[in-house]
Design a protein that fits this description.
The strands form three sheets. A four-stranded antiparallel beta sheet has the order 3-8-10-9. It has a four-stranded antiparallel beta sheet with strand order 5-6-4-7. A hairpin with a 2-residue loop joins strand 5 and strand 6. The protein folds into three domains: 229 residues, 3-hydroxy-3-methylglutaryl-coenzyme A Reductase, Chain A, domain 2, CATH 3.90.770; 100 residues, Alpha-Beta Plaits, CATH 3.30.70; 49 residues, Helicase, Ruva Protein, domain 3 (Orthogonal Bundle), CATH 1.10.8. Helices cover 51% and strands 18% of the residues. It is α+β, with helices and mostly antiparallel strands.
Length: 427
């Protein structure tokens, strides 16, 4: 089968059919497929090495978003998430972008910030001067603590100092390459802290990486044509009207932090699902993203930006911190994380970051398009209704019937599902 992410009606395939398609399009082995079919890939010994006090594992649905073209590559996107409609929405957003070439993304160098808090400096100004005089020596000493990283990426690149009231904060900027970098950066900080204390006469109270990775960002963009947008509504809404409605939704999120919070949550629906699937630290990504949403601004606002091209099409952009890695942590330990990276076929952490940011933009576009046109509940409730029917005890044959009836009645709840189940069982 030719390599393409445009998998028609993938959601209708059986598990075996889906896995066979993945094998043909991504090169997964029979062993990989067998691992996926187990539905409990993480054995006790592996889990017990990853965290403490293990008593079992907690599974999430693991799915594939289709239709993505990112930087000219056809990609299937592995996502681990429990929320209905997220994967379908991302796939649809990607499908609508194919006619204009999909997503284009570029990651900056993977520079992380390590912080050392200095307290009790008798002469802060003199302390800053001493640190700047010895800056290069401190950088070289930091790099001696991780010669392997230094050989690959150059390691520590810069040292900066900030004054916070009576305290000083030293920033060590480190190129972490294909690692997320927390361990490497923290080791360097611990190494240079005693020397900084000697130079300044201050106490190094904290030595820790910052998750506000303002030097390790990704910019992704995409154009959705007004023609595609109109066709997506089956001609019920003019393309230019869809564009205008989405621009109004963006303006709402840009100006109002209450809306921006939910707007950005939609972005993170997509980002977290890929970060989790690849064994990366989704909590760090979340913290960095939401901090970045207000960084340098007067208030918290949108992580995405939308504008109209000269042709009248919709252009979406995202600029977001993305500290993910391909080495270390669960990426090399968790069996499903390793399969996810194999599906994506990425060679660098920057490439992975570009993919994740593109998915976040797609997810956001899908959400605000739904809000601006058909209403976000329409697609979500279809899947939610099925979950309600299943929880009511409906058999596989009855789930769709009960879900469709509840949606038609606009009454999707457990009580109605149980009433309909009794009706169908008594027929």
């Amino acid at each position: 089968m030719p390599k393409t992410s445009a998998l028609q009606e993938f959601y209708k395939k059986t598990l075996d059919e889906r896995l066979q398609i993945l094998k043909e399009t991504t090169g997964l082995s029979d062993e990989d497929l067998a691992q996926l079919k187990k539905y409990s890939a993480l054995d006790f010994e592996t889990a017990n090495r990853m965290i403490e006090n293990v008593i079992g594992t907690f599974a999430l649905p693991f799915g594939i978003a289709t239709n993505f073209i990112i930087n000219g590559r056809e990609l299937l996107i592995p996502m681990a998430i429990e929320e209905p409609s997220v994967i379908a929405a991302a796939s649809n957003a990607a499908k609508l972008s194919r006619s204009t070439g999909g997503f284009k993304a570029k990651a900056s160098d993977p520079i992380m910030i390590g912080q050392i808090l200095l307290v009790n400096a008798k002469n802060p100004e003199k302390a800053i001067k001493e640190l700047m005089i010895n800056k290069q020596k401190l950088i070289e000493f930091a790099n001696s603590k991780d010669p392997v990283l230094c050989k690959i990426t150059g390691g520590a690149k810069d040292l900066q100092v900030r004054k916070l009231h009576k305290m000083l904060v030293v920033h060590l900027l480190v190129n972490c390459g294909d690692a997320m970098g927390a361990n490497a950066v923290n080791t360097m900080l611990e190494g240079i802290a005693p020397k900084i204390e000697e130079l300044t006469g201050a106490i190094a109270r904290a030595k820790i990486l910052s998750n506000l990775a303002v030097h390790r960002t990704v910019h992704a963009e995409c154009i959705w044509s007004k023609k595609e947008l109109e066709e997506s509504t089956k001609g019920q809404v003019k393309g230019e009207d869809v564009v205008e409605a989405i621009l109004q939704m963006f303006d709402f999120a840009e100006q109002d932090p209450f809306r921006a919070t939910t707007h950005n949550k939609g972005i993170m629906n997509g980002i977290d699902a890929v970060v989790l699937a690849t064994g990366n630290d989704w909590r760090a990504i979340e913290a960095g993203a939401h901090s970045f949403a207000s960084f340098g601004k007067h208030q918290y606002s949108s992580l995405t930006k939308y504008s109209k091209t000269k042709e009248g099409d919709l252009q979406g952009e995202i600029n977001i911190p993305m500290a993910v890695g391909l080495v270390g942590g669960a990426t090399k330990t968790h069996p499903i994380a390793k399969i996810s990276l194999k599906i994506l076929d990425v060679q660098t952490a920057s490439e992975l970051a570009e993919i994740i940011a593109s998915v976040g933009l797609a997810q956001n576009f899908a959400a605000i398009r739904a809000l601006a046109t058909e209403g976000i509940q329409a697609g979500h409730m279809k899947l939610h209704a099925k979950n309600v029917a299943v929880n009511a005890g409906a058999s596989k044959e009855m789930v769709d019937k009960i879900a469709e009836q509840m949606i038609a009645e606009k009454s999707v709840n457990a009580q109605r599902a149980q009433e309909l189940l009794k009706q169908y069982q008594n027929k």
